[in-house]
Specification:
Layout (H helix, E strand, L loop, with lengths): L6 E4 L6 E2 L8 E4 L2 E4 L6 E4 L3 H14 L6 H10 L4 H7 L6 H7 L9 H16 L5 H13 L1 H5 L11 E6 L2 E4 L4
Parallel strand pairs: 3-6
Antiparallel strand pairs: 1-4, 2-3, 4-5, 6-7
Helix pairs in contact: 1-2, 2-4, 3-4, 5-6
């Protein structure tokens, strides 16, 4: 945007910023400034601490109920800077094209419940090694381990995407509704 005088609004729960730059269609941000160009009407979010935002989104996906979709698997893989071939090796899959196939299933459950659980644990373990958001990562791992019997005993899959709402607070990002 090039206009000198931009109108700025704060994204609220009633009027959040739909954050599609993540590659996910169901992410909404609250508490950020959104500048609007008066000439074009184009909006541009002003996102502080983008890495923290993406870490929070990664953990929200790892903790989400139901099966991960292909776009969510892709987001987690990319957040860890893994290629499709590296991710396939980590899951002990022989064909790197496996992830290409999974990630094209953008809105459908991509993995069986057992592989979904393994994928989340692998990703969380790798994320834990970054040293960022240690407490949240350990809680997520503990939660998944606690859900292991339930996940392995069920074939029920959630087909719809659950909106992820993230709020920018003073110095941190958090999921709305989270303690």
């Amino acid at each position: 945007m090039r206009g000198a005088c931009k109108a700025v609004r704060i994204a609220t729960k009633d009027h959040p910023w739909h954050y599609t730059s993540s590659g996910l269609d169901h992410v909404y941000l609250v508490g950020i400034e959104v500048a609007t160009d008066p000439e074009s009407g184009e909006e541009e979010p002003l996102i502080p601490r983008a890495r923290d935002l993406h870490d929070c989104l990664f953990l929200a996906l790892a903790n989400k109920p139901g099966a991960l979709t292909g776009s969510e698997v892709r987001y987690m893989r990319r957040h860890l800077h893994w290629t499709q071939a590296q991710a396939a090796r980590k899951l002990r899959v022989r064909h790197a094209q496996y992830f290409s196939y999974l990630e094209r299933k953008a809105d459908a459950p991509a993995l069986t419940p057992q592989v979904d659980l393994l994928w989340r644990l692998l990703c969380l373990t790798a994320f834990q090694s970054t040293g960022r958001r240690k407490k949240e990562t350990l809680r997520a791992i503990e939660h998944l381990v606690g859900q292991m019997d339930k996940a392995l005993g069920t074939t029920e899959e959630r087909k719809e995407s659950i909106p992820v709402e993230l709020e920018q607070r003073k110095r941190d990002w958090r999921m709305l509704g989270a303690a």
